[in-house]
Amino acid sequence: MVRIAARISRMLTVALATALGPAGASAEDAGSNGDAAASAPAAAVERLFGDEPPSPGWFSESFLAAVPSARVAAIVNGIVADFGSFVGVRMNDGEGTVVFERAVVPVTVSLDAEGRIAGLMFGPPVPTGGDPAAVAALVEDAAEGEVAILAAVDGTPLVARDADRPMAVGSAFKLFVLSAYEAAVAEGRLRRDAVVELTEADRSLPSGVLQTLAPGTPVTLELLAGLMIQHSDNTATDALMRVLGRDAVDAALPRGAPVPTTSELFKLKAAGAAARRRAYAEGDEATRRAILEGLADEPLPTAARIEATASWRDVEWFVTARELCAVLLRLRDAPALGGAPNPLVAREGWPWVGFKGGSELGVLNLGAAGVSPSGRTACAVVTANGDGAQPEERIALLFSALFRSLDDAAR
After folding, report:
1. Residue 216 class from Cβ within 10 Å (0-12 exposed, 13-18 middle, 19+ buried)?
2. Are residues 288 and 377 in the same domain?
3. Which domain holds residue 226?
4. 50 and 118 share a domain?
5. What is the pLDDT of residues 220-279, one digit of tens each?
6. Domain check: are 188 and 153 in the same one?
7. H/E run at residue 280
8. Which of 25, 44, 217, 358 could form a disulfide with 365 if both were Cys (CB 3.0 to 4.6 A apart)?
9. pTM (two decimals)
């Protein structure tokens, strides 16, 4: 649901971006010297893309404890399906690139003392064809259910598929909370260094860290904004929404008033809340406001009580791909969106790149915008809504390729 930041972060550092398995031993631990030692990592990577499916015997026990060989096979097959046949691999001290027909993929591999893979990381692919439409077609094929895609340079779409269709976007709605906050700062109604105290009502479920702090803990508004965007902290989001006021947040979102907080959404998605969730979905604005007000005195459910069903049609945050591109670019000067670029979309030499995503069961949204060295703006958004789990790893790699495919047009 609203835990995409934690999940995308894991994708980039543990599972996707794509890292597979623990750091493991270095290549030098393979127990050989000279040419044999130099070629061992390359041979291990090349074997992954051969005719034989990855075997458990190719990996260390610690690697398999974190990532089964079947998952490696699924990722390898997905890379080949999306970027064409394996061409070759270039390695130096365990780092290099894997070349495919339509992309070059960075790779880092480490071997244990027996020459088995102990750590493996595939980085974001760099398309060699530079065709955003071709990458977008792969996203459509990979996604579960309906898909909206927008890829644009200087506001001119290179790909636009259902870009004006409102779709569930999970935590990406937090960009509009940030927009409301930035407007309040610009108008002098709030200060970035203003200190507020967390309340029990602010507490939400992860992702995030502030849910572990006691009520009364003082935090600055800018810290709330930064945690909301960079770590998708739900408690930070709800605290900032409280400070802004529901009317201001409602005005910032393109639709869906009243805009629920993350904790209100969790309460509506908890076990036993199906009837109330349906009433919320079918009710008018006054009915929805009354339902949200009625949640105020209810305790926050535990994570175990959140129903594992695709209930996004009943309660979610609905935004179009075009609206997400617009808000990302509008917020380019916001400190909260100006931290270290997400590795999924980081571009060397670009003065600014911003990223935000969102997900829950059946929902995946990924959005990024940037300013190229020549001063041109680029933006890419992918949103998928379906009844089953989205293939997040594959779509995230394709999204990275989509954003990078805008390089030529943004020069």
Report:
1. exposed
2. no
3. 174-305
4. yes
5. 999 999 999 999 999 999 999 999 999 999 999 999 999 999 999 999 999 999 999 999
6. no
7. helix 274-282
8. 358
9. 0.81
